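One record is set out below.
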Amino acid sequence: MKVLLATEKPFAKVAADGIKEIVEKAGYELVVLEKYTDKSALLEAVADVDAIIIRSDKITAEVIDAAKNLKIVVRAGAGYDNVDLAAATARKIVVMNTPGQNSNAVAELAIGLMIFMARNQYNPGTGSELHGKRLGIHAYGNVGKIVARYGKGFGMDVYAFDPFITDHAVYEKDGVKPVSSVEELYSNSDYVSIHIPATEQTKKSINYDLISKMPQGATIVNTARKEVIDEDGLAKVLAERTDLKYVTDIAADMQVVLNEKFGKRVFATPKKMGAETQEANVNAALAAANQIVAFFTKGENRFQVNKW
């Protein structure tokens, strides 16, 4: 078996070394493609591999077509919208992610961004505290649950909405209050932490009408995907509501315009930082390698995201 580690943005050395050890111990060959700047390099590298490990690299239909022996792609991280699932499924290629491995890193960043905005981006002037504020968790998955726990640690009142979790006991055992709709969540939260994936149903779902419902002085924290935000609607409501703030780990397509118009009320990290910790880097890398080995040796497909 030949495994390709294709990372335009490389893993930390300790993570890459861990992948190499796991793959070679299983008796497979590891091929490494790092810091490539042209898609042609990836198309050439995939030609004869059986498995691919990626980070934010794009596995398009063209890449899949070029990978004649490919059987599995593992995205080291939670999101997998950088993989063409339809093309992979048509070829019966398994696509997996590594859920939970980056969750703590993303959750810590979300809380950090809340503090950053509450304290005027650390500029002089009177800020505010998280204690006693209402925190809304939009999607109660791996990251959302950790953000909720940390929010409670700061003395926040925590609410959550997830259309796929209807059992209130799931929330209540964590001391989190469930709400019945996304509108109710936004209407009653001083901070909303977004953790929804970018799907056909969620793209641009955080729109003018929803944001407009937020209370005075509220802040939206987005560590999910930029596509879930209706940017025109966001700009419109920020213009009308000078009390609202938006902070994101994924710069909007119109981020320059938002910065010019709304100044310190908006902020985007210079580069996506959610999983950029040494711990998350290593966790996701090793999980990806172990999942490939388990797939080939035991037929395990627990984290498969495409079905047929």
In short: The radius of gyration is 21 Å.
